[in-house]
Amino acid sequence: MDSNKRPDTMERITTPELAEAFIAEQVAAVREQVGDKKVLLALSGGVDSSVVAALLIKAIGKQLVCVHVNHGLMRKGESEQVIEVFKNQLDANLIYIDATDRFLDKLAGVAAPETKRKIIGGEFVRVFEEEARKLEGISFLAQGTIYPDILESDGVKAHHNVGGLPEDMQFEGLVEPVKLLFKDEVRVVGKALGLPASMVDRQPFPGPGLGVRCLGAITRDRLHALRESDAILREEFDNAGLTGKVWQFFTVVPDFTSTGVKDGKRLDYWPVIIRAVNTVDAMACTVPEIDWAVLQKITNRILSEVDGVCRVCYDMSPKPIATIEWE
Ligand code: XMP
What we know:
Bound molecules: xanthosine-5'-monophosphate
Order of helices and strands: HEHEHEHHEHHEHHHEEEHE
Strand content: 15-25%
Number of helices: 11
CATH superfamily of the largest domain: HUPs
Number of strands: 9
Strand order of the largest sheet: 3-2-1-4-5
Number of domains: 2
Helix content: 40-55%
């Protein structure tokens, strides 16, 4: 039987009970596969790798070694949440690498989006590989592969996600406990494993993170403005009950300035663009109508709380012709 093919008879995991049964089955299968050997996992904090981590912690505890690489392009509070949930609450064997300087130094002056993606993906593999080489006796590599990754392995995700696995590293085998599941099933399993909703119901976040939202050549000051404005947007969408109703939303900071005025002085400040979209499959999207008062509150907060910003715009463009991300 092709282990990468979902059997027609496999029931869709839609309830906590079905999730519990799946977890029990996978816990047994993982124990059987790895015995007393060690397993390595790149834990990004995204839904898939987080669910795999929680499942493997349940199955093999400290035999799982998680490596979380902070590439400096995470959203505000994301790496902190990974540490809080996995190290503090689940007592995981977690190695945290703050590689911010390394990534930002490599990206300095690089403006072309696909080059930025390649640098981020490539550097990620190198950092992960360096850490893996320092560890002794790792036999297996775990991955958060899900069924759409298998179905679309030539498709959108492969096109976007440059990088991937350390190719020349030898492992006895791969551990991919959720590879036959669809995203909604992974979320149900994650909840049954006790992961917080903010982690499990997270909107999609591109591998290169804020790197493709800080347009052109990334600078630390604009990256800071991007991270802070994004955090305000998320907080206010949450307050307005929009999280979960809008498929993906984020801010973008372009690489040009616009004229602002403060204390009678004209200043060159950045615009911040709000992007919010609804879609089924990310191939086409529409732009939701957001309540004026919500947009006004977000605008006022960004203008008063984020340094170097003088203007907030709402992107009204559907896909096609505009892609969801700005680059
Ligand atoms: P676009 O911008 O192509 O985005 O309309 C469609 C979906 O893909 C996400 N996206 C990425 N995801 N690596 C990823 O893992 C990437 O380089 C990347 N670029 C875009 C985007 O956030 C949206 O959900």
